[in-house]
Amino acid sequence: MVVSKTVSKIEKLIELDKKHYLHPTTVPKSFIENGPKIIFHEGQGIRVTDIKGDTYIDGASMLWNVNLGHGNKELAQAAYDQMSTLAYSSSFYGYSNEKAVRLAEKVVSIAPGDLSAIFFTSGGSESNDTAFKLARFYWDLKGRSTKKKILSISRSYHGATVSAGTATGIDAFHSFAGSRDADMVRAKSHLTNCELGDKNDPNYEGCIRDVIEKEGAETIAALILEPIQGAGGVHVSPDGYLKAVKALCEENDILMISDEVICGFGRTGKMFGVDNWDVVPDIMSVAKGITSGYAQLGGVLVNKEIRDTIVQYDQILGHGFTYSGHPTACSVGLKTIEILERDNILDNVNNMEKELKKGFDYLTDKHRYFTKSRAVGLLAGFELQQDRDLDVPFSESVKPASFVVDQCFKHKLILRAADFEKGKDIVAIAPPLIINKEEISEMINIIDAAVTKFNKTIK
Ligand code: PMP
């Protein structure tokens, strides 16, 4: 009786979901046909349990954000305490609140170089749109108002709002109808080996230097990139790349924006992605890990020069969100950073990176199609190729990454496929930063089983 009641409750929920809930980044027609893949109910540590009672390892930290894992009572308490005191207050017109001020000071204190002030938003897309606006505002104040364009890199993901969406260098995200930000230009990514315009390279055309020359530096306000591209397929910047890009930006008076929405707050084993290469960007956008996903918060850090310029003129910073500096979100942000530091989470990330790499070595030895594994901290991925020695991908119909991700799901491990680009069959892995050795082994065993199954289907 109890069981059938539960079943009918779930069925009812599925019907309501199909009827009334339009899901992001989902094919609506197939959603209506198949219903939700999973309805999450609760989470603890690296695991989430669905409404039917099945428990999964969250190998993706949901959307690369639940960095401290699920069910963290301290974060919940920080939200509760703040909500009970002052749930919300505006930050417009000179209003302020203590948690926003304290979080601003804290984030600036852990940020690299002279990044010295933060503008709060509610998420990553808003952060990047804000970063673009601040860059353009800065050049206006400097009397160089022709500097409007934003230069982004192929395979990047910067968000879903109009400007951040236009900057995004993954075509699959452009198919959704909408306007484009006209002041955007794109360069090829480092994967083409021509990022800085080596004229001997056959792919030279379209590289960063080339695009700057073509557009004219006087038209470009800023360049945006992720230190490690996440949604684009976990592409790690080669050593020297970010430094060279920064130098190129300086040479051309172009502000460098590091999109740290995924990399920030310990994901890569350093506090910020750029810290892996000792590069200090002019602007840095953050979100996701700043609250470990427990509250909606993002921010844009600017360097001292930009901050000092903005405050020097008697001109309104005519931009802001209702939830900029949300006290509850900022309270959760403060607690998140406190836990990161107090519990030496970065040490754990670096240790678990080693465990993950051991697992990857094992899988590389065992499976002929398993290749190109990489991990910087707990931002990791691997690829599947028909012939890894000759760098030959599977034919498009095979979809090995999606197959392996589906198999992992059957074995109760949630991962993410990045296979929207022809010839690139990538599986991304980004577990909560609190994961331990045994749990890494559990993940590796499931991936092992999934790839074994894939091998059998190919034979
Ligand atoms: N930048 C990067 C690097 C991201 O990965 C994302 C989200 N996946 C965003 C920006 C956009 O963030 P949001 O979805 O919070 O708007």
Automatic annotation (TrEMBL):
Q: Which UniProt keywords apply?
A: Aminotransferase, Pyridoxal phosphate, Transferase
InterPro entries named in the record: Aminotrans_3 (IPR005814), Aminotrans_3_PPA_site (IPR049704), PyrdxlP-dep_Trfase (IPR015424), PyrdxlP-dep_Trfase_major (IPR015421), PyrdxlP-dep_Trfase_small (IPR015422)
Instruction: Respond yes or no to whether keyword Transferase is given for this record.
Output: yes
Record CDD domains: OAT_like
* Top-level lineage group: Bacteria
Report one GO cellular component: cytosol
**Pfam families found in the cross-reference section:** Aminotran_3
Single GO molecular-function term?
A: pyridoxal phosphate binding
Report the family membership.
Belongs to the class-III pyridoxal-phosphate-dependent aminotransferase family.
Q: What is the protein named?
A: Aspartate aminotransferase family protein
Q: Which organism is it from?
A: Peribacillus castrilensis
